[in-house]
Each structure stands twice: as C-alpha cells, then as structure tokens.
C-alpha cells in the first residue's frame, strides 16, 4: 500500500504541472473557440423597443433636411433660441419624408453579441477614447498596468505558498518564518493594487461617461434637437433617461468589462507560461490535458450559448420600462397641482402602478431566466470542469505502467503540487470569469444599443432628418409635394436685410403633414403690429413656429432677416446684418412661460444671465419689475437675488408678467406674443402693451382680448376651416373669429394667395 501511494505521489508530481498547463492552454483555446463562434449572424428585427411601437400606430416617416447654401437657410427665427440663425446651422428646408417601415435610419436588431454590437461599440469607443494622447488612454494604461501587476502578484503568491508548504514539509522553521514575513509583506502592495484597480475602473467609467455626455449634449443642443427629438421625431422616448441613466450604466459596464476580460486574459497567459516552465522541468505530457480541456470547454460553451436567454434584448427592454416609470413620476410632479385640483390621483396611481407592474414583470422574467441559466452555468463550470480536471489528473497516474524516479524530494513535489494547484485554480477562475462575462457582454449590448441609437437619432435630427408618423390627407388648396413616394417641403427661405418678414403662399402644415391653412401671404416690417386671431387649432401658434424656424416651410417663400454672424450677436441671440445690436430679432412669449432655475433676476434676464452683483442689470431688472407690477411679489419672495422654485412660487399671472419683463429686458425687434397675457389683469396688460410699443418692439400677438387690439396696425384672421384674411386693422370695427365674408376653400385658392400684400391691400382667402 505505501508503495502504491509513493508511486501515485511520484506520478502526481509529474502529471500535475502538465495537467495544469493542459487545462490552461486548453481552456484558453476553448474560450477563443467558444467566443469566436457566438452570434455572428445579423439578428432579425424585433419590436422590443418602444420607439418602434409608436411607429406601428401609423406610418413612420422621416423628415430630412439638407445643407444650407446661398441665400436660403433652415433657421429663420434669428431669436435667442435658434442656433440655425446664428450661422451654425447646417440644415435648409429640403426635407424628405420617407416611409420609415422601409428605411429605418436606426436599424432594428436584437441587442446581443453580434456584428451590429461590435459596430456600435467601435463607434462609441471612438467617442470615449478620442486619441492615443487622451486622458482616457492614460487611465486605461494605468489600469492595465495594475491588472498586469495583480496577475504577477497572484503568481508570486502562489509560488510563495508552494515554498511555504515545502519548508513546512522540510520542518525548516527559519525559512518558513522568513517566507511567512515575505507573504505578509506582499499583502501591502497586493491590497494597494486591488484598491487601485477599483479606483481606476471608477475613474475610467466616469471619463468615458463625460466624453459620451459631452458628445450627446453637443448634438442635443445643436439646431434645437432637444425640441425636434420630442416634437418632430418619434424614435426616442424619454431622452432624459438615456442621457443620464443609460449612459451611466453603459460606461460602468464597459469599464467593468474591460477589467473582467483583461485580468483573466493576463491570468491565463502568465499562468500558462508559468505552468509550461514547471512542466518542462518535470518533463510532463503537454498534449492530453489541452485536448480534453478543449473538447469539454467547447461543448459546455456551445451548450451555454444555445440555452442562454437574450440578455441584451431583456436589458434594453428593462431600461425602457425604467425610463417609462420615471417619466410617469416626472409628469405627476410637473402637474401635481392640476392633478390635486382635479382629484385625479386614482388615474395617476393606476398609471404608476401599471408602469411599475410592467417593470416588475419584466424583472421577474429576467430573474427566472437567470435562475435556470446560472444553474446550468454553475453546473458546467464548477462540476463538469472539476470532474474533467479529476479525470485528467487520474488518467496518467492510473494508466502509468511503471514508476519513474526523477530524484525530486517529497518536499519539492509538495511545493509543485501546491503551486500548480493554486495556479490551476486561478486559471479555472479566469476561465469562469471569461465565460460569465458573456452575460455581461450581452447585457452591455442592450445599453450600447440604447446609447448608440440615441446618438444616431440626435445626429440625424440635428441635421434635420426626423422620423415620425404622418397622415397625408388631400387638401384643396395645398398639396404636399411627393418625390419617390416621399413628401418634400418645397418652401424657400430667403434672407432680408431690412428687418422685414414676408410670407408668400406659405402653407401652415403640421409635422404630421396636416394642412391647417394654405397660401398665407403677408408683409411685416418693424412698426407693423400684427394681431392674429382665429378659433382654437386654426394654426395661429403654428405660424409662429414656422416663422421661428421650428417647423419646415412646405411651400411658398419665407423672407426673414439675415442673422448677423458676429460673435457678439451670436451670443446675444443673433441680430440681422446691418443691425448689429444686442437686440434679438424675435422673442417668443408663450401662454405658460418657462421659469428657469436660479434667482429672480435670472428669470428676468433669461436666456442671458446677469453676473452676481451686477448693479446695472439689477437696476434695470428692478425698473422692469415695477413696470410689470411684480415689485411687490419680488420683495415678498426675498428680492432679486433670491433663489426659489419660481415655477411653483409664482402664480400663473405673475409668471406671465415675468415673461413680459423678460421681453422688456431684451427689447427684441419682434415680440411673438402667444396669448401670453391671458391671466394678467386687463389694466396691467394695457400698460404692458403700451410700454412695448413705446420701446419700439413690434408686436405679433395672438390674443382673444379686444382691449389690446388697438395696439395693432394689421390683423391676420383665420376662420378655422383653412381660410384666412390679412388686412390693415380698422380700430373702430370689430374683428370676429368667424369671418362671414370668407369663401369656402377652393382648388384655386392657392393661386389667389400669390398676390403681393401691402399695407393698403386687404386679402381674403
Ligand atoms: N407637434 C405637433 N404635431 C402634430 N400636429 C400638431 C403639433 N402641434 C400642433 N399640431 C396641430 O396643428 C394644429 C394647429 O395648432 P396650433 O397650435 O397652431 O393652434 P392654435 O391656432 O394656436 O390654437 P389655440 O388657440 O388653441 O392655441 C392643431 O390641429 C394641432 O393639433
């Protein structure tokens, strides 16, 4: 019996390193083989993304703007909000609407480890790591160095432990004590390196996130993309969630995956080399182990791949549901007062519960799928592999026909056993980590798709290409032009150099291609105070959107002031050429004004910001607040520099006065007033209108209040059936919102609208 044991020990000392080497090489080969054969195909389209569910309700179409040239441009508001008018526009009015069912700009695919994912990852990596001299490369290099050092330390510790066991077997107290001290000594750099790895991983994730966020923000704020993505394009829901949560999760996963892939690779490489050295020393067989390991790992890898749930698609769907839940919460917070007044909490609660339930169902389904998959994974990696290891260990010993004496001592064999087993364990861990990374990779694919799609859509929308459902209906007076089954906005934008705004046969067409009114023609110059009236939904605000450049011009000609491209004017919202002043050209004031974050003075100066303690700005703001009768409210809320949530703090009427204060502060050439004083008392309203006219601000007003009609010189009246009339305003006669004299729309209505307008001429269509 002792003879057999000795024989086994001798065999073991030979076989162990070779098995270890075999497992290492085999496992590395197998891992490459398994990863190399995964999901190379292009996956079929799926509807897991809600962006496309929207599309199924109607026809998804795509609005495409080209590039500006000559005298035409896509931006024509020239106001504070319009990047197009500041000369950084790269769009014009050429827009193509394609059937998005045939031409999706963001290709639908199942997120997973496939070519599409690799393509997305490469394009995102180009943004995250812009060059070899970048900050990110420095962090990556330091991180890689730490990972490499950690692997060396692991091997060193494994061999140290082997030596310790050897000296225990030799009963060499002194060497044992020295090695133990060495072992403790190595713990200090090892723990530091471990901590550095985590630190650098977090820094890397943050650096990647910063790059992506900066890139996304650039696109998001270019050419009013933030507006177009929400209003003219249907591909992205909840852009806020993608910009915050999804980008953060994606970058953290990338940074984590980098270490969880790099470290096992280093481990394998160095362990295989180390074991090869041992094997050479022991003259072990290096072919049996790799062959068995390769076969077993290939088989288990293929099995895992076949039975793996679609983690990428599941992660993408979960992210969408989280975004939806957050959106429902955000909506409730934004409209809490209205909901409370209506007593609508039951509806809101049911919507919240539905969103949460949907998320819970999705997460439960993921957990259930993971339960079986992790069970299978553990079974394969922990038991099948260990069993294979045991077979490999036993085979050479059991099949050996004679003992081979090599002169090595028992203590040497104990050292080899301990060291190689430690290394073998590390190699197995490394392989397990590599195989488990598959889950992480496909989950990452889900987030990569969301982030990449977001950037693609932002880029396209910034270039003027939008995709949304359109319902083109025939209209008697204006037909949307089609080219290759694609409706094309055919309008022209022409710059004027005398501050005038002219419309020639411009139809009012919504983003859904509904023609609200056709052939609108009018002439406005500074001093032409225009009153716009008509029933709800007749296109009054839409006219402002077209003139401001938010919506495309589908036909006719739109003449707007050419913006001045100098840095001063660009900063101040764009002044027309030859009128290089700090006055913006157009200033839109809505019925429900926007209150920005910050102090009261920030509300007055928005979208500019007064520097802290700017006495001149404060004096001017205080004067304007007195003018709009907000001085008492300002004093009550802590003065000009008090910071509050002004959206909740100010009443509806106060907010409208604040918006008028903003207009007085900026003194635009044209003020687009969209029922912006509906909640203001008539007496103050009249004062504000009077003051605006005195300040030289030309009013383009949508208002139902006859008390302010007298401040206008012209009227544009819509009847709500597509007809309109533009004429000088006779202050003694009443303007009606139902025009008896307006003829019903006819086919030649568009031709009638070709007449040039002037102040004397009245047009009715
Ligand atoms: N983003 C949009 N997408 C599609 N259709 C829109 C969009 N915005 C407005 N519309 C449609 O365009 C039409 C005109 O809207 P607009 O806001 O110009 O009306 P309005 O005359 O200002 O009405 P109100 O007096 O009620 O403010 C409406 O039928 C509206 O449904």
UniProtKB/TrEMBL annotation:
The record places domain ABC transmembrane type-1 at 144-381
Gene Ontology CC entries for this record: peroxisomal membrane
Q: Name one GO molecular function term.
A: ATP hydrolysis activity
Identify the PROSITE patterns for this entry. Answer: ABC_TM1F, ABC_TRANSPORTER_1, ABC_TRANSPORTER_2, PROKAR_LIPOPROTEIN
Q: Which residues cross the membrane?
A: 15-35, 176-197, 285-304
Keyword Isomerase listed? The answer is no
Q: Keywords on this record?
A: ATP-binding, Membrane, Nucleotide-binding, Transmembrane, Transmembrane helix, Transport
Give any single GO term for biological process: long-chain fatty acid import into peroxisome
**Low complexity bias located where?**
746-765
Residue span(s) of domain ABC transporter: 501-745
Task: Using the UniProt annotation, give all residue ranges assigned to the region (Disordered).
Answer: 737-765
- Could you tell me which SMART domains the record lists for this protein? AAA (SM00382)
Looking up InterPro entries in the UniProt record yields: AAA+_ATPase (IPR003593), ABC1_TM_dom (IPR011527), ABC1_TM_sf (IPR036640), ABC_transporter-like_ATP-bd (IPR003439), ABC_transporter-like_CS (IPR017871), ABC_transporter_sub-D (IPR050835), P-loop_NTPase (IPR027417)
The UniProt family comment states:
Belongs to the ABC transporter superfamily. ABCD family. Peroxisomal fatty acyl CoA transporter (TC 3.A.1.203) subfamily.
Q: What is this protein called?
A: ATP-binding cassette sub-family D member 2
* Organism of origin: Spodoptera litura
Gene (name only)? LOC111361865
């Amino acid at each position: 019996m002792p003879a057999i044991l000795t024989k086994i020990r001798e065999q073991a000392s030979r076989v162990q390193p070779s098995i270890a080497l075999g497992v290492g090489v085999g496992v590395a080969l197998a891992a490459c083989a398994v990863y190399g054969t995964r999901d190379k195909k292009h996956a079929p389209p799926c509807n897991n993304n809600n962006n496309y569910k929207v599309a199924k309700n109607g026809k998804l179409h795509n609005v495409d703007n080209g590039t500006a040239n000559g005298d035409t441009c896509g931006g024509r508001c020239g106001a504070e909000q319009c990047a197009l008018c500041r000369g950084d526009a790269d769009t014009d009015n050429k827009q193509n609407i394609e059937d998005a069912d045939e031409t999706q700009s963001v290709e639908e695919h199942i997120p997973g480890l496939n070519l599409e994912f690799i393509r997305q990852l490469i394009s995102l990596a180009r943004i995250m790591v812009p060059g070899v001299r970048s900050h990110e490369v420095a962090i990556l290099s330091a991180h890689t160095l730490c990972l490499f050092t950690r692997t060396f330390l692991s091997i060193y510790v494994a061999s140290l432990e082997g030596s310790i066991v050897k000296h225990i077997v030799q009963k060499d107290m002194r060497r044992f004590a020295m090695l133990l001290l060495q072992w403790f000594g190595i713990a200090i750099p090892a723990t530091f390196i471990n901590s550095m790895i985590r630190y650098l991983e977090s820094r890397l994730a943050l650096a990647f996130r910063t790059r992506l966020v900066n890139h996304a923000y650039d696109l998001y704020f270019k050419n009013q993309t933030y507006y177009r993505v929400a209003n003219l394009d249907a591909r992205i829901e909840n852009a806020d969630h993608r910009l915050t949560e999804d980008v953060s999760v994606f970058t953290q996963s990338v940074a984590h995956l980098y270490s969880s892939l790099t470290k096992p690779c280093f481990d394998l490489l160095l362990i295989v080399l180390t074991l090869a050295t041992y094997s050479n020393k022991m003259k072990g067989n290096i072919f049996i182990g790799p062959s068995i390991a390769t076969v077993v790992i290939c088989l288990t890898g293929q099995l895992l791949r076949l039975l793996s749930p679609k983690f990428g698609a599941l992660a993408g769907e979960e992210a969408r549901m989280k975004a939806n839940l957050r959106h429902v919460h955000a909506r409730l917070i934004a409209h809490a007062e209205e909901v409370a007044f209506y007593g609508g909490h039951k509806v809101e609660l049911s919507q919240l519960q539905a969103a949460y339930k949907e998320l819970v169902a999705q997460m439960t389904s993921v957990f259930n799928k993971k339960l079986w998959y992790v069970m299978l994974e553990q079974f394969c990696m922990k038991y099948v592999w260990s069993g294979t290891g045991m077979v490999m260990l036993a085979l050479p010993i059991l099949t050996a026909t004679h003992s081979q004496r090599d002169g090595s001592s028992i203590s040497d064999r104990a050292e080899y056993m301990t060291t190689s087993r430690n290394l073998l364990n590390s190699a197995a861990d490394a392989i397990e980590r590599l195989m488990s990374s598959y889950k992480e990779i496909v989950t990452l694919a889900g987030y990569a798709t969301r982030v990449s799609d977001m950037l693609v859509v932002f880029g396209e929308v910034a270039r003027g290409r939008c995709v949304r459902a359109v319902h083109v209906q025939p209209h008697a007076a204006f037909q949307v032009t089609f080219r290759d089954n694609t409706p094309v906005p055919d309008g022209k934008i022409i710059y004027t150099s005398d501050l005038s705004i002219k419309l020639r046969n411009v139809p009012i067409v919504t983003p859904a291609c509904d023609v609200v009114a056709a052939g609108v023609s009018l002439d406005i110059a500074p001093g032409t105070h225009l009153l716009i009236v008509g029933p709800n939904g007749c296109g009054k605000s839409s006219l402002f959107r077209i003139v401001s450049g938010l919506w495309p011009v589908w036909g006719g000609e739109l003449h707007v002031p050419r913006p001045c491209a100098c840095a001063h004017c660009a900063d101040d919202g764009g002044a027309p050429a030859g009128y290089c002043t700090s006055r913006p050209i157009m200033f839109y004031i809505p019925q429900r004004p926007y209150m920005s974050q910050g102090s009261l003075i920030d509300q007055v100066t928005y979208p500019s910001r007064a520097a802290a303690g700017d006495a001149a700005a404060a004096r001017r703001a205080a004067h304007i607040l007195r003018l709009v009768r907000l001085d008492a409210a300002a004093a009550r809320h802590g003065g000009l520099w008090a910071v509050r949530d002004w959206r909740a703090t100010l009443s509806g009427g106060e907010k409208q006065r604040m918006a008028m204060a903003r207009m007085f502060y900026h003194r635009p050439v044209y003020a687009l007033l969209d029922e912006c004083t509906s909640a203001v008392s008539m007496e103050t309203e009249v004062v504000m209108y009077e003051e605006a006219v005195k300040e030289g601000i030309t009013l383009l007003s949508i208002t139902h209040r006859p008390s302010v009609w007298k401040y206008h010189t012209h009227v544009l009246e819509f009847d709500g059936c597509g007809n309109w009339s533009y004429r000088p305003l006779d202050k003694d006669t009443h303007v009606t919102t139902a025009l008896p004299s307006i003829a019903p729309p006819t086919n030649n209505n568009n031709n009638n609208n070709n007449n040039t307008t002037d102040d004397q001429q009245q047009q009715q269509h």
